[in-house]
Amino acid sequence: MAANGAPAGLTQGSGTKGGIGESTLRPDGVLKVTGEFAYASDMWHEDMLWGQILRSTVAHAEIVSVDTGEALATPGVYAVMTYDDLPTDVRHYGLEIRDTPVLAHGKVRHHGEPVAIVAADHPETARRAAAKIKVEYRELPLVTDEASATAPGAVLVHEHRTDHHSGHVPHPNIVHRQPIVRGDAAAAAARADVIVTGDYHFGMQDQAFLGPESGLAVPGEDGGVDLYIATQWLHSDLRQIAPVLGLPEDKVRMTLSGVGGAFGGREDLSMQIHACLLALRTGKPVKMVYNRFESFFGHVHRHPARLHYEHGATRDGRLTHVRCRIVLDGGAYASASPAVVGNAASLSVGPYVVDDVDIEALALYSNNPPCGAMRGFGAVQACFAYEAQMDKVAAGLGLDPVEFRRINAMEQGTLMPTGQPVDSPAPVAELLRRVKAMPMPPERQWESSEGADVRQLPGGLSNTTHGEGVVRGVGYAVGIKNVGFSEGFDDYSTARVRLEAVGGRPVVTVHTAMAEVGQGGVTVHAQIARTELGVTQVTIRPADTRVGSAGSTSASRQTYVTGGAIKHACELVRERVLELGRRRFGSYHPAWATAGLLLEGGKVVTDGGEVLADLVDVLEDEAVEVEEEWRHRPTQPFDPRTGQGDGHVQYSFAAHRAVVEVDTELGLVKVIELACAQDVGKALNPLSVVGQIQGGTVQGLGIAVMEEIVVDPVTAKVQNPSFTDYLLPTILDTPALPVDVLELADDHAPYGLRGVGEAPTLSSTPAVLAAIRDATGLALDRTPVRPEHLTGTAGSDRHPQDPPGGARNVTPSAPPGAPAKSRSARGT
């Protein structure tokens, strides 16, 4: 600074590196790929105890007695707790409906429900002590499907419902029901030249995150507790935990720990309350980590679904109407089922122009495993069915399936079935054009001068074929997904942004409660701060509840909503910094009085690039800090009778082309390529955008051909709770994944961005199924497709969720006794 106080060394601004639009590297990337990143399961505290849960061995039973004496007498055990030991009268929790008991009381409603918790000085001691707890069950009749849930005199999963959905459902075993009626579907059907119906079954998918549920609860000197946890939504957890503990929310201090994936499975509570209860009971830190077996029981899954559709069309390829009925199995507790129903209903027609619709979607209570949030959130199941229907109608009309979709593709201004206009770009036809125009992978890639490369064939290194019986198929699909929370939910985020000079350099600190679950939010948030404040050095503070809520890391919303909050807070910081500069230096240059000043490269510059001051000189010893909430446009609840209403804030679109090769003799499938075209509005980090699209695509591939939690329809027990028997795509199953990114800005969103992460999960599954149908000529109305479905060896009397003969190795649970028989069990 010059002696007279004016800024010295004025030069032209050079901008700031690492802002939006660049593929900056993730700050946690190297640590994760080298194995040095600390996940929640790696946490350690001196003198900590280990927590363990005893879970029910039956799916529906009265709890006759619980004997904890032998467990309490085990050396090294510090505490054993059951429902009767809970400290307050608040003993249930839930995202929307508080129907989930902290520990089972009176009866259990699903296989693997928590009954008791143990704290001991060693994890093996805790496990053995839990196994010593004697629980006597008297088994009750099971509710496993719609027929048993709604039959006259059906057993009620929850006997005394008082939640706000209970007055709008036709039966207490229906969690929520959402009809959507627009136009006159019956009259439109009379005008149709082709009517196609179909019944579809979508299997139960697991989020299968690699980092198991884990957390560390540390009792505080003030009677509170500090909880370090892997979760998706810190403040939602806090809202549910504090009342059960009998503590005010400011005494339950939550900090996000390293999260090894989520995909919706961490939106509900797992061991959060249990760890805190044990820590407060023993006065010692308590760590809980699920093993993989327990993880399958410790979180919700994707809703399995039964879907019935009717589509009509005229000879020129125009859709006349859609009728559909979607039945989702929510399992024993509500979780996110009401919102999933809303999504499934409102998005059930797909990205098409249809004026006349009659839609019903509902979720059941049953004694099957609880189901809730998973990537795609109700839209995945619907997309599988409506895209199969679109192929059927196209075939009935003799039209190319892509051309038929193009004819009916929605565009900006189209009305959704809910009556809501799509008020931002909806490039459905363009995405289809782009994905179809991508180069096709070469035929018979396995052939070489040295013979067949079996790695490129169905069956791979198992060497089941050298090309005989292998047929290629190609399939297309496109989907629509909402972004952000819907139906009138107050969807907001909070950001605290601080700008100060540290060591002679301007530094920005960003603090939010956003859960980084692997999506790359911490990377984008730093990019936003660099762009808005022109500072290279940005520190992202760990997420905790010492700042306001950021909402859930779900619904493809965090870049939109928390990114919007950071952008807004940065704008307010910038204005305060400029006002500070005007006070200090305004007399030295007339440009300080203009409105077009920017912060770039650590300096204050004019819109023409002339530097007015270094930020360090403007700030001196003063820090500028702002904490602000930010909300997107409001939405509306859907009408409970007609489903009409502006329920969503934004829509995203993706299209896929799948190329598969099928060994028709053995029923083996090799996905050769899954090409995707997706509109992202604005790619804030292009590399991360492509990664999200490819990851969602592979997750859709999994449910198409291999992933399914198998539940015994007789016992309602999970049959395959392991990564040995629950099959996941590996790198050997992953095909080429070319991506074409379209950027058509949504003027209502920060930077014009559009949520990215979920849309590719929708259309990849039906594209793979369409390609397999193209190769085999088979109808294929369920996911996942198994070898016996392709070879015609599936038994006609087999329930769709029965263990598939020969498709995988399944270790069945021990069969329960007769319904009225009492017996003792020592836990899973």
Task: Chart the SSEs and their pairings.
Layout: H1 29-33, E1 49-55, E2 61-67, H2 69-72, E3 77-81, E4 92-93, E5 100-101, E6 107-108, E7 114-120, H3 123-131, E8 134-139, H4 146-150, E9 174-182, H5 185-191, E10 194-202, E11 214-219, E12 225-229, H6 234-245, E13 252-256, H7 272-282, E14 286-289, H8 292-298, E15 305-313, E16 319-329, H9 337-346, E17 357-364, H10 379-397, H11 401-408, H12 428-437, E18 470-483, E19 492-502, E20 505-511, H13 521-533, E21 537-540, H14 558-585, E22 598-600, E23 603-605, E24 611-614, H15 615-619, E25 624-631, E26 650-663, E27 668-679, H16 686-705, E28 739-742, H17 759-776, E29 782-783, H18 787-791, E30 822-825
Parallel strand pairs: 1-14, 10-29, 12-13, 16-17, 20-21, 27-28
Antiparallel strand pairs: 1-7, 2-6, 2-8, 3-7, 4-5, 8-30, 9-17, 10-15, 11-12, 11-14, 15-16, 18-26, 19-20, 19-25, 22-23, 23-24, 26-27
Helix pairs in contact: 6-7, 9-10, 10-17, 11-12, 13-14, 16-17
